[in-house]
Amino acid sequence: MPNLPDNLKYATSHEWVKLEDDNVVRIGITDFAQQALGDLVYIQLPAIGRNVAAKEQCAVVESVKTASDLFSPVTGTIIAVNETLADEPEQVNDNPYQTWLFCVKADDPSELDALMDADGYQAMIA
Question: Model pTM?
Answer without folding.
Answer: 0.95
